[in-house]
Design a protein that fits this description.
Blueprint lengths: L1 H13 L9 E5 L5 H11 L7 E7 L4 E7 L2 H4 L3 H4 L6 E7 L14 E5 L2 E11 L2 H10 L10 H10 L5 H9 L4 E9 L2 E6 L8 E5 L2 E5 L3 H6 L2 E5 L5 E5 L2 E5 L11 H7 L5 E2 L2 E2 H14 L7 E4 L5 H11 L7 E3 L23 E3 L1 H4 L3 E6 L6 H12 L4 E6 L21 H4 L2 H8 L3 E4 L2 H7 L15 H4 L28
Length: about 500
């Protein structure tokens, strides 16, 4: 019976209608309340991962670690927990698993003793050669405790014969490939690393005499830190003797940040390349409106992901914006999966139609993206059931036709609706009156570019184009690599 329940649970999870977030990383140097600040920073980054959270601190003599399942606010909310993490340096991590599983041993930060001292590592992203590296390390005698690709990084650092930790880090990152942002902690040194294309985000902040490395600027805002700059692509930054230092060991490449940071992942108030994610998303809606000739009574967002784009669309079109769907914010991402007999309720756990707004209206329904289409189908039906005259679906990004391998939990190509159906077939599947996606050209215009540079694309946009900037060494056909060993991830260890 337990085996059957696990299979059902896995099946239900695998068919999540939305793209899953990545992970959130945070690190702070030289402050007496380092662990408290780390907990607050992780709280601001909660949207990037809800499966587990952890903090590692250093008190000048030894390291301390706490890792927990679930949300930051449920685990690092009491003084007695924070007291277990003394020290002036701390790093933290919010986890959403893209490789490995949800076992406690896979929750970060990871820690290891090396011949240069201890090191803790928090990682956002995926390595595209983790299995290849892992197999070689095992052949050389390495012993792995987790199924996460992050442990591969730790093993490479520990294996380096260089004396200084920063040199060991350089050795390690020259061997890894993929999209990644790393925050590391050694004895009185905080280290940040961003991949050569800058696919995964990492920013620098300052709070009095302390420095902060984190995934998004919203984590700086919550602790009152000043935003300094983004870590450059291929850059290693580190705090040594309270001084910010920089290394650029890679051959220079043009930056290609992940387009979905702008479309969906980053919190709306976070700053990306000088502007908030909210501003970009609003312009996506404006460009979508320019490309559309529909006449309607009302623009309705799919909350909360479609809010900014819908507002931009509404203002550009001159069509009234209103909340035709009401979200239940008390149903979080960790809500218990319903039993089979009520599972059919599906999206109603989170959304309900606002009948007073939608009745007898021709509605333009705006969302940030469409993946499998299952949620869109349910929402369209919900609006029709609430009395809508017509529902026209508008998506503020192009068709998603290719999976991700750089840290985003994306369905395989065979599960992506747009990879397997025409526009007309998708429209029929979701039961909308009409359907339109923002063009690739529109995305780039909204981002401030005249057009996409097909020779050197300005963004990592493989979701739409199939143009992967980093070689997919571990890719096995259309199957996602999610398990790095035969070890069960159901263990609590």
């Amino acid at each position: 019976m337990k085996k059957i329940m696990k299979i059902q649970k896995k099946k239900f999870k695998n068919y999540s209608p939305k793209i899953k977030e990545e992970c959130g990383v945070f690190g702070v140097s030289n402050t007496h309340d380092a662990s408290t600040l780390a907990a607050l920073g992780l709280h601001a980054l909660q949207h990037r991962g809800q499966e587990g959270c952890g903090i590692v601190s250093f008190d000048g003599k030894q390291y301390h670690s706490e890792k927990r399942y679930g949300l930051v606010g449920d685990n690092f909310n009491k003084e007695k927990v924070i007291k277990k993490l003394p020290g002036n340096y701390a790093i933290g991590h919010n986890r959403y698993s893209t490789t490995g599983g949800t076992a406690l041993r896979n929750i970060q930060p990871f820690f290891a003793d090396t011949n240069a001292g201890g090191i803790g590592v928090s990682h956002n992203g995926n390595l595209t050669n983790a299995i290849t590296l892992r197999n070689k390390l095992v052949q050389d005698g390495a012993i792995f405790y987790t199924t996460s690709d992050t442990e591969t990084i730790v093993q490479l650092i520990a294996k380096s014969k260089r004396k200084k930790t920063i040199d060991k880090v350089v050795d390690a990152i020259f061997q890894i490939q993929g999209g990644y942002a790393l925050v590391m902690l050694t004895q009185n040194t905080l280290i940040g690393v961003r991949d050569p294309y800058g696919i995964r985000p990492l920013v620098i902040g300052k709070l009095k005499n302390s420095y902060v490395f984190t995934s998004e600027t919203c984590a700086l805002d919550i602790i009152g830190a000043k935003f300094i700059r983004e870590v450059e692509n291929g850059e290693i930054v580190y705090i040594e003797n309270d001084e910010l230092k920089s290394l650029k060991p890679f051959p220079p490449k043009k930056i290609r940040p992940c387009i979905f940071e702008y479309i969906y992942f980053s919190r709306p108030d976070s700053i990306l390349n000088g502007q908030t994610a909210y501003e970009y998303r609003k312009r996506f809606g404006e460009e979508l409106a320019k490309e559309d000739n529909i006449k309607a009574d009302l623009v309705v967002p799919v909350p909360d992901s479609g809010n900014a784009a819908a507002l931009g669309y509404s203002q550009k079109k001159g069509i009234n914006f209103d909340l035709g769907l009401i979200r239940n914010h008390y149903v979080g991402r960790t809500f218990i999966e319903p039993v089979q007999k009520i599972r059919s309720l599906g999206v109603k756990l989170k959304l309900n139609a606002n009948k007073s707004v939608t009745k007898n209206k021709i509605i333009v329904l705006v969302d940030d993206s469409l993946v499998r289409g299952t949620t869109s189908h349910k929402i369209v039906k919900m609006l029709y059931d609430a009395g809508a005259k017509e529902v026209h679906m508008r998506i503020a990004c192009p068709e998603i036709k290719y999976p991700d391998f750089y840290g985003v939990d994306m369905p395989t190509k065979k599960e992506l609706l747009a990879a397997n159906k025409s526009l007309e077939e998708i429209c029929e599947f979701i039961n909308a009156k009409s359907l339109k996606f923002l063009s690739l050209e529109g995305i780039y215009k909204a981002m401030g570019y005249e057009k996409r540079n097909d020779t050197y694309p300005q963004l990592t946009d493989h979701y739409f184009t199939g143009d992967y900037p980093v070689k997919l060494i571990d890719k096995l056909g259309d199957d996602k690599v999610t398990q790095l060993s035969l070890l069960s991830t159901s263990s609590n260890n």
